[in-house]
Design brief:
By secondary structure, this protein is α+β, with helices and mostly antiparallel strands. It has a domain of 151 residues. 16% of the residues lie in helices and 55% in strands. A 14-stranded antiparallel β-sheet has the order 1-2-3-4-5-6-7-8-9-10-11-12-14-13. A hairpin with a 2-residue loop joins strand 4 and strand 5. The longest helix has 15 residues. It is globular, with a radius of gyration of 22 Å. One of its GO terms (biological process) is protein secretion by the type II secretion system. Belongs to the GSP N family. InterPro entries: T2SS_protein-GspN. It is found in: Cell inner membrane.
Length: 251
């Protein structure tokens, strides 16, 4: 028994000390990586290491580092502390991998909004330019191995928000909470932090079916551009508390 434990410890030591670049070359034979994802130079070991350059042409992290918590392996799970940096942005959190899937805890960060304009254009069908900064504080995010989300709790914000489609419009600050209820629905409260746009309301998303509903009240403050005020008026008649917007559908 002692010999078996000793051999197991030695094998674990060898694996932990394996250079991350060597491990990645081996893993690429079995992991299907999308062509648009670029993986840069790897440094360190499987235990503690970093990659210099990771992402796509639109969204690129300058550096992503990781540190494995060895004691979690005794519980049958893999726990990794992760930090990433990019131009004008960062992200840090903890990832736990077990039989059930992936759980991300205490994920915090800030990202520039501009690279996400291309994604917004895909949904809207028109060229979109975004300005400002996205921030996120995710307490817990649970996914299964197929990539389906089963829980999302935290807070999202868009600071100094601005959007250009045909014309440029500043929005100010936009926030939403994320809370997953017992029925598997993520619910959120919408709000603003000042600026041109006045926003309140709530929304929900059913994680199983993809159905969603948004019930919001929007208005503009005096400093808002005319294009923003006119755009809101197209969404519906203005009432005493603003323009009521209701959306529902399925993702």
């Amino acid at each position: 028994m002692l010999l078996l434990l000793g051999l197991s410890a030695y094998v674990a030591f060898l694996i932990a000390g394996l250079p991350s670049a060597v491990a990645w070359e081996f893993a690429k034979r079995y992991v299907d990586i999308p062509q648009q994802v670029e993986v840069g130079s790897l440094q360190g070991t499987i235990w503690n290491g970093r990659v210099l350059g990771l992402g796509t042409a639109e969204v690129q992290a300058e550096q992503v580092s990781w540190s494995v918590q060895p004691t979690a392996l005794l519980r049958g799970s893999l726990v990794v502390e992760i930090e990433g940096t990019m131009v004008d942005g960062f992200a840090e959190g903890r990832a736990e991998l077990d039989r059930g899937g992936l759980t991300v805890l205490d994920l915090n960060g800030r990202l520039p909004a501009s690279p996400w304009g291309a994604l917004a254009a895909e949904f809207g069908g028109e060229e979109v330019a975004l300005e400002g900064t996205f921030s996120f504080a995710i307490d817990q995010l649970e996914l299964d191995y197929s990539g389906d989300i089963h829980r999302a709790d935290g807070r999202l914000a868009w600071h100094d928000a601005a959007i250009t489609v045909d014309q440029h419009a500043r929005l100010g600050g936009i926030t939403t909470t994320l809370v997953t209820d017992a029925d598997g629905r993520v619910t959120g409260e919408l709000g603003d932090t000042g600026g041109e746009l006045v926003l309140s309301g709530n929304w929900w998303l059913d994680l199983a079916s993809g159905s969603y509903e948004v019930d919001a009240i929007v208005d503009t403050r005096e400093e808002a551009a005319d294009i923003l005020t006119r755009s809101l008026e197209l969404a519906g008649p203005r009432q005493d508390d603003g323009v009521h917007i209701g959306l529902e559908g399925s993702l």
